[in-house]
Amino acid sequence: MAATANPHKLAEIAAILGSAVELLPRPADLGEITEDGDTLEANARLKATAVCSHTGQPAVADDTGLEVAALGGAPGVRSARYAGEHADDSDNRRRLLAEMEAAADRSACFRTVAVVAFPDGRELLAEGMAAGTIAEAPRDNQGFGYDPVFVPDGGDGRTFAEMSADEKNAVSHRGRAFQALAEQLGR
Ligand code: IMP
């Protein structure tokens, strides 16, 4: 099954789906896929069907967003470009903390939608969610995306960025979405 071009994500997904599914990196000659859908589901489907039509093989793709209650669900589907078209992770975190300066309610959740597209047009879809709160300031700035400012509920107060990959995967939105997908695939 063809999947993401990101080697970290590929390893994470392979660990969850198990050895019964052979995951291949997204072909390099496919180029960038414009993620211009209005929802996480639309973007995940866009990527999965593009890779599936290009390779003629089943393909899996996911899309993730951070939904913040005090911001009416933003940045949501625009999480990657929250601080602008060419924003990097730290730009996005800075904008998020600035927007939340006066917010009393710091609750938020990560949501991931994962889609498998098959060459015959069938698809599988699964969703995963992780609830938590936005920290006042980043902790462990090396972390990926919004991880340094996200404290998951039910933990010991550490941000996702301060956890090991295994600790994060066990309770994360992406981990849960791919667990649910693995169940649908009969693993
Ligand atoms: P994508 O759908 O995986 O490309 O993610 C969209 C944006 O959400 C990324 O640019 C990241 O900033 C953020 N993001 C996705 N997954 C995570 C995560 O597990 N932790 C923190 N931020 C994430």
Please name the CATH architecture. Answer: Alpha-Beta Complex
List the ligand species: inosinic acid
General shape: globular
Q: Could you name the ranges where pLDDT drops below 50 across 5 or more consecutive residues?
A: none
**Number of helical stretches of at least 4 residues:** 5
What's the domain count?
1
What order do the strands of the largest sheet run in, or round the barrel if closed? 2-1-3-4-5
Estimate what percentage of residues fall within beta strands: 15-25%
**SSE sequence, one letter per element:** HHEEHEEEHH
The CATH class label is Alpha Beta
Give the tally of β-strands: 5
Helix content: 25-40%
The CATH topology corresponds to Maf protein
Mean pLDDT: 92
State Rg. Answer: 16 Å
Structural class: alpha+beta
Distance between the termini: 15 Å
Describe the biggest sheet? 5 strands, antiparallel
Task: Describe the structure in your own words.
The protein contains 5 helices and 5 strands, in the order ααββαβββαα. By secondary structure, the protein is α+β, with helices and mostly antiparallel strands. The chain has a single domain, classed as Alpha-Beta Complex (Maf protein), CATH 3.90.950.10. Inosinic acid is lined by residues 63-64, 79-80, 89, 92, 144-147, 160, 172, 174.
